[in-house]
Design goal:
Pfam families: DUF1218
Shape: elongated
InterPro entries: DEAL/Modifying_wall_lignin1/2, DESIGUAL
Transmembrane segments: 65-85, 106-127, 152-174
Main location: membrane
Number of strands: 3
Family: Belongs to the DESIGUAL family.
Structural class: mainly alpha
Strand content: under 5%
Radius of gyration: 23 Å
Strand order of the largest sheet: 1-2-3
Order of helices and strands: HEEHHHEH
Number of domains: 1
């Protein structure tokens, strides 16, 4: 089966929406903070002589959902990039014909910037939360057992959706450039 622009548009949209959904769900399941235990009768107050705070975080699906959101964002971006240059119906178009208009160049750049911003907003809290979960023993008596910043995964989810939509605009602009190129080629 040959891939058409409609297939590529559906795939880009599908993975963009999946990234958005998993990012929003990950943000909603993220706990507000961990609970200091073992050696502290009250949160942040160490037992005399111990001087250690051990943080125990409740199990939550934030990290797996965040990783899925990031993976589907990357798939959407790769498909979006490939869709602009893909030789549909085995007819390739030179890059200078695709980027002949300033509009295409601007939207292509915006698509990459929004994809990078979405990846950053998803990666930052995922890495931070991963570090919090793996480093649970702290020798600071007033340690508060924080979580990753609230809102970043959700923001990354919305930027993932924006990125997919802008890749769709790039695909439409590339389709217009293809039609113009083949129309001019048939005249000559």
């Amino acid at each position: 089966m040959r891939l058409s622009m409609k297939h590529m548009a559906l795939l880009i949209s599908l993975f963009g929406v999946i990234s958005f959904i998993f990012g929003v769900v990950a943000e909603n399941y993220k706990p507000a903070a961990g609970t200091p235990i073992a050696g502290t009768p009250i949160a942040g107050t160490p037992i005399a002589g111990k001087g250690v705070v051990i943080c125990k975080y409740p199990s939550d699906p934030t990290l797996p959902l965040g990783y899925i959101s990031l993976a589907t964002l990357l798939i959407s971006v790769v498909l979006g990039h490939k869709s602009v240059f893909f030789p549909y119906e085995k007819k390739a178009v030179p890059k200078n014909a695709i980027f002949g208009s300033t509009t295409m160049t601007v939207f292509f750049t915006i698509a990459w910037v929004t994809a990078a911003l979405a990846a950053t907003l998803l990666l930052w809290p995922i890495i931070t939360q991963h570090l919090h979960l793996s480093n649970t023993v702290h020798h600071i008596p007033d340690y508060a057992c924080p979580n990753a910043k609230t809102g970043l995964i959700g923001g990354g989810a919305f930027m993932s959706l924006n990125s997919a939509l802008i890749w769709l605009v790039c695909l439409m602009l590339a389709n217009n450039a293809r039609e113009d190129y083949f129309e001019e080629a048939s005249r000559v």
